[in-house]
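User: Hi! I have a protein structure encoded as tokens and I'd like to know what sequence might fold into it. I'm fairly new to this, so please keep things simple.
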């Protein structure tokens, strides 16, 4: 009679404990890809410094990027179609919380808050038509910066992380980089070009 021994546990590459989704190889890959997508957006976005005065815009841009990446990572187990929709919703909540005093419980959008955003967007269009770069960092311009960085991050995240085609993410990044290049009155500083290349 032959007895078959069944091992009490299955060893893994990292030791006796199985890797969890958050800390295992796939979890680390997710975090690296997501962080890389966000970093690329911020690095390429440094070109905005040539068309918007000051540095306050950078904080708004960083908030949008961190929120979009955070939502994407939090929903990494959801259907891929759900992630960008949740990121758009998160971006809407962020913009209403930042640029309207008529939100519900500080952050939740209301019809009045969305109306406030529409007024700011209209004002931003007027400022862009009449202004000369670098334009002042008015609430209207900061709203555009926040929304633009958020939408760009959603696109880059979808391509680089969800579709796992990071090289293709250069297309939306290049398109955004081309806007400051076209609008700036002078050549971009070397540090901006280096940051964009790194991104």
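Assistant: Happy to help. Inverse folding works backwards from shape to sequence: for each of the 199 positions I chose a residue that suits the local structure. Here it is:
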């Amino acid at each position: 009679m032959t007895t078959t021994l069944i091992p009490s546990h299955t060893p893994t590459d990292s030791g006796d404990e199985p890797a969890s989704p958050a800390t295992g190889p796939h979890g680390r890959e997710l975090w690296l890809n997501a962080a890389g997508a966000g970093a690329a957006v911020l690095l390429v976005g440094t070109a905005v410094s040539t068309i918007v005065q000051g540095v306050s815009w950078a904080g708004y841009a960083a908030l949008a990027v961190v929120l979009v990446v955070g939502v994407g990572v939090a929903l990494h187990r959801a259907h891929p179609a759900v992630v960008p929709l949740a990121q758009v919703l998160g971006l809407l909540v962020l913009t209403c919380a930042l640029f309207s005093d008529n939100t519900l419980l500080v952050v939740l959008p209301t019809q009045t808050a969305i109306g406030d955003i529409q007024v700011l967007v209209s004002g931003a269009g007027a400022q862009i038509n009449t202004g000369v770069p670098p334009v002042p960092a008015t609430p209207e311009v900061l709203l555009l910066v926040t929304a633009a960085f958020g939408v760009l991050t959603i696109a880059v995240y979808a391509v680089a992380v969800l579709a796992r085609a990071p090289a293709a993410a250069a297309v939306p990044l290049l398109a955004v980089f081309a806007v400051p290049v076209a609008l700036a009155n002078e050549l971009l500083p070397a540090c901006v070009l280096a940051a964009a290349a790194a991104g």
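A useful reference point when you look it over: Residues 139-162 form the longest helix (24 residues). Feel free to ask if any position seems puzzling.
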